[in-house]
Amino acid sequence: MFVPARVRQIIHTSIKKKQAKRHFDSCRWEQALACVESALESGEVSGALLRLKADSLFEMHRYDAAARVYRHLNANFPKRQGAVGLSRCLLEMGDAAQAEIVYTVTDGEPRLRWSPVLLDALQAQDKIRESYLYYRE
């Protein structure tokens, strides 16, 4: 039975994405990353795959690499999918001020929903009054 290459590619990507999610949920981040990389090599790029890649890299403490993927998500996919993750990376790398900026202002869009990441970024900068007010929102 002949199966077109595009259909095989879609099936491969779908299987790898499910495997990656299963590995990630089981805290097997290296395996999750390998599955995501395999799916991305097939040419299928989606926000969900890139998010899973970035989240795996973050959990493996590879913050620089994760930040690059989160930045790509912010730039190329709707709804600022990588803003919170990028803020978490920047905070872990010791750049609380930049973490706050990324979280609160991106292309003039309003702040994202309430998050402990922003609270941590404010406290790391000794902005105690601002963090208290933010917490009370």
Concise description?
The protein is an all-alpha fold and 137 residues long. The protein has helices at residues 5-25, 29-41, 47-59, 63-76, 83-92, 96-104, 116-124, 128-136. The model has no long low-confidence stretch (mean pLDDT 83).
User: Helix and strand string, N-terminal first?
Assistant: HHHHHHHH
Radius of gyration: 17 Å
Question: How much helix is in the residues?
Answer: over 70%
Largest sheet: none
Q: For the residues shown, what is the average pLDDT? A: 83
Tally the helices. Answer: 8
Estimate what percentage of residues fall within beta strands.
under 5%
Shape: elongated
**Low-confidence runs (pLDDT<50, min 5 residues)?**
none
Distance between the termini: 60 Å
Structural class: mainly alpha
Extended strand count? 0
Task: Kindly describe this structure.
By secondary structure, the chain is mainly alpha-helical. Helices cover 72% and strands 0% of the residues. The protein has helices at 5-25, 29-41, 47-59, 63-76, 83-92, 96-104, 116-124, 128-136. The protein is elongated, with a radius of gyration of 17 Å. The termini are far apart. The mean pLDDT is 83.
